[in-house]
Specification:
The complex is a heterodimer of chains A (258) and B (422). Chain A is an alpha/beta fold. Chain A has helices at residues 49-56, 86-92, 107-117, 124-137, 141-144, 157-169, 187-200, 213-219, 237-242, 247-253; strands spanning 2-3, 6-7, 9-20, 23-34, 38-42, 66-74, 77-78, 93-96, 175-179, 205-209, 222-227, 230-236. In chain A, strands 8-9-10-5-11-12 form a six-stranded mixed sheet, with helices on both faces. Chain A has a four-stranded antiparallel sheet with strand order 4-3-6-7, with helices on one face. Chain B has 422 residues and is mostly helical. Chain B has helices at 2-45, 73-78, 82-90, 98-105, 112-122, 139-145, 162-173, 184-187, 200-231, 236-249, 253-265, 275-300, 303-311, 316-344, 348-352, 373-382, 387-421; strands at 50-59, 130-136, 177-181. Chain B has a three-stranded antiparallel sheet. The longest helix of chain B has 44 residues, at 2-45. The chains are: A alpha/beta (258), B mainly alpha (422).
Chain lengths: 258, 422
């Protein structure tokens, strides 16, 4: 979204290095991410795009040997700072994973989990509303409204992924991180999710990691190309796909490697 | 070339067939042994659930009991029953000499006058009258009646004399010997007399020990497992702890018995022979089993569930308590039941802490001396009397029943938990 023609920057990564033990996985990544836009991160397997994504909500903390250096500013606040509380950060930054991973609980419990632990709903009624709006936004409501108290694991893969999206948006995060959200889905489910992403960007800033160049071209406004732990090039999707500056980007886009 | 290929293919099929055969014969062998084992136990043990009674007319002679005309309840309680008891046995053969009278007396259980006393306490109006009373037969005659006794042995190798057999056969012919369900096997504590010995003490002892064991081992083990698996940093020290827990699971149980003896009894001065000490000792033994099972089932929870919860902003504690632990519960519980089943069948450590003592009272709490079922089996198997042979098997049957019920219970819990989450 542009206000008065000025791009609003939501996330500003400055010189981010990531190490797994002694092995360096990301080198000097600096990337600005615009508010209420979809930013796609592309690149061959093992290039570090998922690692970068996981830096943004500090999911790398879970991995003992992983260490992150550099600054990541979200709303001008450095999330790698000691004063940053991970729990509150992750409330603001939702995440959708590669494999649909609903909790083995009911649909309702899946969506209401976030609001419950963060104390967002004051009453049962309010919670019902949150669950309904979240499922509606995730374009799942019509399919599941009669079986909210059945296990979420009983849904199809595409429905499960939309349930995970509903779960992620139930706490109204500012940013949604998506780590190859369609790689385990069939083309129809993929199309549904892509449509959904387009809808969601009105209220959320979305960063999506994808293996599919076509997907990146379809859903994103900005694209970053990663290769061997380096951010080779980033800019508007139009430019990256039609007229990239870098030879490597050109080669990857045209399918010459990767 | 083609022929070669065909040969190879045939060979592969044959190999598979052979392998199937091996597998099937292995299963057959296992089933065969199990069947033989169970058949043997049931065929020796089932007769212990029946008990033989002699029906003997008893004359409740007030004079012999040293009672007045209108005795109070207390008087009846305090009266002397030995004389009338003796008399009623002697009356079975009025012509018996002194030696034969002695033999007559030994045809019934050692404490037969108590059974006569119970009869009068139930109905004080019997005073001065004669009534046919059921008296517990001696263990040897019990075995004779169950046809477990070798009657054709020479007399000097038998504990039952020809004279006793003669009188007994007369009683049988007159219909004065009866076999009834052996209630006292379940309600009596242990006894030196096989016909009176029961499993009540050891059964309660086992239950108390297992409860103490469960209450100590389960929470400690589950907390340890959760901490090690979900919270502890992975470093050399935690590796060291893990190795030692695994080693602990392999320590012979008798060593834990020595620990109980040396620490619980000698240093902490806890009461010996009690289920409390037994349970604590068993819990040390069960601890590593439960920890290993709980850790394995925590590990089996897919990391994607943890990531999902963490990414929703759940703290580590919330992730663990809301998702990981409930999902790991079925596995943890089956591990716990396996551990408890092991503990239930454990003998050596209990012997060392004194639960092998002869206990003829039924424990009312874990602080009272008691035996346990496997130790009871051990005690009875050591006894020379023929009457204990069937009791050993019967006790094994009870122990097996106990284990089956525990496993069923585990299955039910497991089922319930799994239903809830999938």
């Amino acid at each position: 979204m542009r206000k008065n023609g000025v791009k609003m920057i939501k996330i500003k990564a400055k010189d981010v290095d990531v190490f797994y033990g002694k092995k360096q996985a990301l080198f000097n990544i600096s990337l600005d991410i615009e508010e209420n836009q979809v930013t796609a991160l592309i690149g061959p397997s093992g290039c570090g795009k998922s690692t970068f994504l996981r830096c943004l909500n500090r999911m790398n903390d879970v991995i003992d040997i992983c260490s992150v250096k550099g600054e990541i500013l979200i709303n001008d606040f450095n999330i790698n700072d000691k004063s940053c509380d991970v729990v509150r950060l992750r409330e603001k930054i939702g995440m959708v994973f590669q494999k649909p991973n609903p909790f083995p609980k009911t649909l309702y419990e899946n969506v209401s989990y976030g609001p419950t632990i963060h104390g967002i709903a004051q009453s049962k009624q309010e919670m019902d509303e949150i669950v309904e709006t979240s499922l509606k936004k995730a374009a799942l409501w019509e399919e599941v409204k009669d079986r909210l108290h059945e296990p979420g694991t009983g849904l199809s893969g595409g429905q499960q992924q939309r349930l995970c999206i509903a779960r992620a948006i139930s706490v109204r995060p500012e940013v949604i991180l998506m780590d190859e959200p369609c790689s385990a889905l069939d083309p129809i489910a993929t199309a549904q999710i892509e449509e959904l992403i387009d809808e969601l960007k009105k209220e959320h800033t979305i960063i999506i990691v994808t293996h599919s160049m076509a997907q990146a071209a379809r859903v994103s406004q900005n694209t970053g190309f990663f290769h061997l732990g380096q951010l080779i090039e980033h800019g508007s999707t139009d430019k990256i796909f039609k007229n990239p500056d870098n030879k490597k980007t050109q080669d990857y886009i045209t399918g010459r490697f990767g | 070339m083609n022929k070669n290929k065909e040969q190879l293919l045939n060979k592969r099929y044959k190999a598979e067939q052979r392998f199937r055969l091996y597998g099937q014969s292995a299963i057959f062998m296992a089933l065969l042994f199990l069947t033989i084992f169970i058949f043997k136990i049931f065929s020796t043990g089932y007769s212990a659930f029946q008990k033989t009674w002699l029906i003997v007319p008893v004359n409740f002679d007030a004079e012999l009991m040293m009672l007045d005309e209108n005795p109070t309840k207390q008087d009846i309680e305090d009266a002397d029953y030995y004389e009338i008891a003796l008399q009623s046995m002697w009356n079975l053969d009025p012509n018996a000499n002194e030696d034969q009278q002695n033999q007559l007396k030994r045809m019934v259980s050692y404490f037969f006058e108590r059974e006569i006393k119970q009869e009068l306490l139930k109905d004080p109006n019997l005073l001065g009258k004669t009534k046919e009373v059921y008296l517990t037969a001696s263990d040897d005659l019990d075995q004779v009646f169950k046809a477990n006794y070798p009657r054709d042995l020479p007399e000097d190798q038998r504990r039952v004399s020809d004279y006793q057999l003669k009188i007994f056969d007369q009683l049988v012919a007159n219909g004065n010997v009866e076999s009834k369900f052996n209630i006292s096997f379940f309600t009596n504590a242990d006894s030196r007399e096989a016909e009176l010995a029961g499993i009540a003490s050891s059964f309660m002892g086992s239950i108390f020990s297992i409860l103490v064991c469960l209450m100590i081992a389960f929470p400690v083990a589950v907390l340890a497992a959760i901490y090690l698996e979900e919270f502890a940093p992975k470093n050399r020290f935690t590796d060291f702890i893990e190795v030692n827990i695994n080693n602990l699971a392999a320590v012979p149980s008798i060593v834990f018995g020595l620990l109980g003896l040396g620490v619980l009894l000698a240093i902490f001065q806890l009461p010996r022979s009690t289920p409390l000490v037994g349970g604590i000792t068993l819990s040390l033994m069960t601890l590593p089993t439960i920890i290993i099972a709980a850790r394995a089932s925590l590990k089996a929870v897919p990391p994607s569930i943890r990531e999902a919860a963490l990414a929703m902003g759940a703290s580590r504690m919330q992730t663990t308590m809301h998702h990981t632990v409930p999902l790991s519960m079925p596995g943890t519980l089956s591990g716990t039941i396996i551990g408890l089943a092991q503990a239930l069948g454990e003998t050596a450590p209990l012997i060392l802490i004194g639960m092998v003592a002869f206990v003829n009272t039924i424990p009312g709490s874990p602080m009272d001396p008691a035996a346990s079922l496997p130790v009871q089996i051990y005690i009875w198997a050591e006894s020379a009397e023929r009457g204990f042979v069937e009791k050993v098997s019967a006790c094994i049957m009870v122990l097996l029943g106990f284990l089956i019920i525990m496993n069923l219970f585990a299955q039910i819990i497991r089922h319930k938990f799994e239903k809830k989450w999938s």
